[in-house]
Design goal:
- By secondary structure, the protein is α/β, with parallel strands linked by helices.
- 30% of the residues lie in helices and 20% in strands.
- The protein has 2 domains: 4-97 and 216-389, 3-Layer(aba) Sandwich (Alkaline Phosphatase, subunit A), CATH 3.40.720.10; 107-213, Alpha-Beta Plaits (2-Layer Sandwich), CATH 3.30.70.1250.
- The strands form 2 sheets. It has an 8-stranded mixed β-sheet with strand order 10-9-11-1-12-13-2-14, sandwiched between helices. Strands 3, 4, 5, 6, 7 and 8 form a 6-stranded mixed β-sheet that branches.
- Helix 4 packs across helix 6 (167-180), helix 9 packs parallel to helix 11 (292-311) and helix 10 (281-287) runs antiparallel to helix 11.
- It is globular and about 65 Å long.
- The two termini are 17 Å apart.
Length: 392
């Protein structure tokens, strides 16, 4: 039987503020505590795996007979963004946070970007992705100037109307920006933010977003698996987050539903390796927009799909569900990510039921466990919990 691991990242599903959350302005944040207040939340499958049994979670009803293993994972890296979170899950600890630009990008950088693209830049400030279109959308339509903005995260975002700047042209501008944004300017992600609409009816971002990530500084779990002839399949943003490094096959997705549909279809595929999934809507559509009911409804939909997924798993399959950071939709201090612990739920026919792994010191324990599952020596960060959760 070929071994397979399905690693699903619920992008931004944090489970409570970490001890250093105050350093990030995130004291008191808890994504899970906010969404449980919504009547839209119904997660019986994750609950049965042990979600509400996880250390430090003081909301929800604990399962008396959980069918999975569970833990709370601390982030060892400095930061609270998608790139750093996923890199740590894959075994790379970031000792220094990726650069942020709270006052906008320096003139030298912007001038180089304008020269490379042949277009002027407008905005160049931290902004909400929806608000920036309200303020600068019409000017962009009239001038063709690119809306460049950032956030509290390490990102360089380029917004352009799809009728003014065709998608491939926008993506090319992002590639040029990615080449410039290295070293001290090396932001985690350059993000294409295409939109449609007009000033009268309103501007709307489309699903044609594309991320151009900084290449990981070292080999990750993905590279090691690939070097050992183990399949590495990325679904959603995974290819972008790792700049394609260590990915043997990729599937882009427009939403969570599409991501889970592809993941479920892969249950029928005869591969040996890792299927690494990012479900981005929790963060992008609901977390940043502080939409508690929307976030809760999306979790409920995932939970329903998860029930069917578990039913169809093979005997040797291992399922791990986790997150990369928090984005508390009930947190009013900002609309940015929140520095939180993340959950870890593991399930499989060979996984001990009700195994409580407590609080672990790094997301990278996941990569160590996956390498262990494929009998590969771990040369990365992290400690495997495979022996602790295995029935044999």
């Amino acid at each position: 039987m070929k071994r397979r691991v399905f690693l699903i990242v619920l992008d931004s599903f944090g489970v409570g503020a970490m001890p250093d959350a105050e350093d990030y302005g995130d004291s008191g944040s808890s994504t899970i505590a906010s969404v449980i207040k919504s009547e839209k939340l119904s997660v019986p499958t994750m609950s049965s795996l042990g979600l509400f049994n996880i250390a430090g979670i003081n909301v929800g009803d604990k399962s008396l007979t959980p069918i999975g293993a569970y833990a709370r994972l601390a982030e060892k890296s400095k930061g609270k963004d998608t790139t750093v979170g996923h890199w740590e899950i894959a075994g790379i600890i970031s000792e220094y946070p990726l650069p942020v630009f709270p006052n906008g990008f320096p003139d030298e950088l912007i001038n180089r970007f304008e020269t490379e693209t042949g277009r002027k830049v407008i905005c160049n400030l931290p902004y909400s992705g929806t608000e920036v279109l309200k303020v600068y959308g019409e000017e962009h339509m009239q001038t063709g100037n690119l809306i460049v903005y950032t956030s509290a995260d390490s990102v360089f975002q380029i917004a352009a109307h799809e009728e003014i700047v065709p998608l491939e042209e926008l993506y090319d501008y992002c590639r040029k920006a990615r080449e410039i944004l290295q070293g001290e300017w090396g932001v985690g992600r350059v993000i294409a933010r295409p939109f449609v609409g007009d000033n009268e009816s309103g501007f709307t971002r489309t699903s044609n977003r594309h991320d151009f990530s900084l290449e990981p500084p070292n080999d990750s779990m993905l590279d090691i698996l690939q070097k050992n002839n183990i399949d590495t399949i990325g679904i959603g943003k995974i290819y972008d987050i790792f700049a394609g490094k260590g990915i043997s096959k990729t599937f882009s997705t427009r939403n969570n539903d599409e991501g889970m549909k592809i993941t479920s279809e892969l249950l029928e595929e005869d591969f040996c390796g890792l299927c690494f999934v990012n479900l981005v809507e929790f963060d992008m559509v609901y977390g940043h927009r502080r939409n508690i009911d929307g976030y809760a409804a999306a979790l409920s939909e995932f939970d329903s799909q998860l029930s069917d997924f578990i039913e169809n798993m093979r005997d040797d399959d291992l399922l791990i569900i986790t997150a990369d950071h928090g984005c508390d939709p009930g947190f009013t201090a900002s609309t940015d990510h929140t520095r939180e612990y993340v959950p870890m739920l593991a399930y499989g026919r060979g996984v001990k039921k009700g195994k409580d792994l407590g609080t672990r010191c790094s997301f990278s324990d996941i990569s160590a466990t996956i390498l262990d599952y494929f009998n590969i020596d771990n040369t990365l960060e992290g400690n495997s919990f495979l022996d602790e959760i295995s029935q044999n």
